[in-house]
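One such shown below:

_____
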Amino acid sequence: MNPATDRARAAARAYRPALGPGVLISPPLLRGPRTVHLLKHPVSGAAFEVGPKEHFLISRLDGTRTLDDLAPAYAERFGRRLAEEHWNRLLGLLGTRSLLAGAPDPPTAAPPPARTGGRWHGTRRLVADADRTTARLHRVLRPLLHRAVQLPLLAAGLVTVVALVLHTGELLDGTGELIREPAALAGAALFLWFSITLHELAHGIAAQHYGGTVTEIGLRWRFPVAMLYCTVDNYLFLPALRARLVIAGAGAHLNMVLLLPFALWWSLLPPGDPTRALLAGLLLLGAVQGLSNLVPLPPLDGYRMLGHLLGTARLAPETRAYLALRRNDPDAAAAYPRRARRLYTAYAAGFVALVLLAAAGTCAAAYQLLTG
């Protein structure tokens, strides 16, 4: 054998690679028939998927292990020898993507344009450095994020939801009264818009609290409606499930917290009071706005929370792909792992049930408002 080749192979076997600082690795995610992990470069933001075998090796690249060190653990885990070609191919992939320590950083992605779209629909970035802005807000509000504050607020929100459910008829009647009062309705609409704005910022502040980042804060309009948006990045890579769930649900939680003073005011007023009726309408609209975000349908926050709980990526698109495969290629669909088959089938059934339930509830509420 060529001496130069022998030396190159010996050097490769003695190499102790390490991941570059700040490289992000996600928890396992079910995507179609495969379980994948996401890797992301901390500077360029480029991300790609790897399988469980590659993740097993990548997560152990700490600069102290060689191929010979990792091979026994790999064989014990997967029941097969770690081929030298596989090892070299993996290191080559990581090297070309600048994910190994010592590799030069790739150029950062160009910032998105400050404005896209036109007069009738589009977006406009409002903050030059969204991550720094939300970090400052987080520093100011951090004492309020302690469990001693948030858990009582969560309990109060749950009590409020139960109380509203028990007075559904009154809330529907109050909504009818609110609709017939233009000034009060305008005030309620302004409050709901303000609540949506804070809803978006709550995602960003929660992300800062748990180590995520905020890439953009801006205004999105679909004439005549304009809404603030806050794009949270990197929280998919947080190892703690609780952190990912809190970030996704922070907006809905804040919506319910904002309703608490009005719920208390409403509860203290006697039945028949005109203000009580208007507050009942505001509470119904606000509760629907907040709780509807927890419905597990895309693109709502509840859909993201369900994805975190189930450990899935692109749940809705992968469900559609699986159902299409069942119809067109049953053998290929049968090759999916059992968990994937059950999960995608269950989500499809739940999706249909939720859509029908939402349609029925909307029709019933509209009928009650029109005939009440």
User: Anything to note?
Assistant: The chain has a mean pLDDT of 91. The two ends are 91 Å apart (CA to CA). Residues 190 and 334 are 52 Å apart (CA to CA). The chain is about 60% helix and 10% strand.
